[in-house]
Amino acid sequence: MVPGAAGWYCLVLWLPACVAAHGLRIHDYLYFQVLSPGDIRYIFTATPAKDFGGIFHTRYEQIHLVPAEPPEACGELSNGFFIQDQIALVERGGCSFLSKTRVVQEHGGRAVIISDNAVDNDSFYVEMIQDSTQRTVDIPALFLLGRDGYMIRRSLEQHGLPWAIISIPVNVTSIPTFELLQPPWTFW
């Protein structure tokens, strides 16, 4: 597990050392911004899977972040139609990270964001690794703090919305530090 604040430190102070050679991945963190609903219009930090999944070769200015039904995404999704060509938000638990990613890929998702099922987790990232099956996936898989996933889902429920609109990945190096809109619940 890696403390969340280290990503901001790395990005702001050590950019040349943090930029990876391929894709848009920056160090061990990837950033996305919720554009709608407005009450959670923040830049969120996620970590890519360690040894499976693809990387982002394209920046999506506006794409839907669709909470999977059922949330754990370990089998058939009742809202799989809405995940096609979008990004799925799923919860940790019930099956492996790779299994969840495969389910989303089979439903035509462009990526999956897996939030921790510990809703009080606001600072520690879990390292998502390959399971023992040797299966593969092509779409990116990201891990999101439990508190962040909970707050996104809660906002969608409060507004009666089926999805959020996000921009991913976000290059935070081009944003002045004082303008970084981080979720207020993740400050130390």
TrEMBL record:
InterPro entries: PA_dom_sf, PA_domain, PRADC1-like_PA
Sequence ranges assigned to domain PA in this UniProt record: 65-149
Source organism superkingdom: Eukaryota
A Pfam family assignment: PA
Family annotation (Gene3D superfamilies): 3.50.30.30
Keywords: Glycoprotein, Secreted, Signal
Signal peptide (residue range): 1-21
Locations listed in the record: Secreted
Cellular component terms per the entry's GO annotation: extracellular region
Main location: secreted
Protein task: Plays a role in the modulation of physical activity and adiposity.
Name of the protein in its database record: Protease-associated domain-containing protein 1
